[in-house]
Amino acid sequence: MRLALFQPAIPQNVGACIRLSACFGVELHVIEPTGFRFDDRAMKRAALDYGPLGHMTRHADWDAFQRDRGPGRLVLFTTKGAEPLTTFRFQRDDVLLFGSEPTGAPDPVHEAADARVLIPLKPGARSLNLAVSAGIACWEWARQAG
Question: 76 — phi, psi (to 5°)?
């Protein structure tokens, strides 16, 4: 399983996802541009010394990510008309993709997705934090994988 962030805007969320990927032992892919200055020193600080960042790959843009991501389904987590996480079945080589915090994923990303998954929320709730959503997704993937 791989975790991918599409043009993240909040460095603390990327830091939390760095820690998340280190703790779950999964690759993290960051699709640029980001909404903040992205340098190794800042990311190491945001990751709170969770080891080397060898499990993280940066992609210059969406096209570079698509070209280099390798095999596996692209599973987009979205609030827009998707299958609930409670019924979705993951596969071992899935790429779990999360859109930008302020805007989500644009139409071309939605169109490229092999599956679109929704984390069910209480009626009237808008959305969860990016890192929280990624944590829920990683946990469910790990639970299903055994």
Answer: -90, 125
Ordered DSSP codes for 39-85: -HHHHHHHTTS-S-STTEEEESSHHHHHHHS-SS-EEEE-SSS-EET
CA pair distance 30, 20, nearest whole angstrom: 14
At which residue do the structure tokens 């599409």 appear? Answer: 6
Percent of the chain residues topping a pLDDT of 90: 68
With CA atoms as reference, report the closest residue to 9 among 97, 103, 146, 82.
103
pLDDT tens-digit map of 58-97? 999 999 999 999 999 999 999 887 899 999 999 999 999 9
What pTM does this model have? 0.92
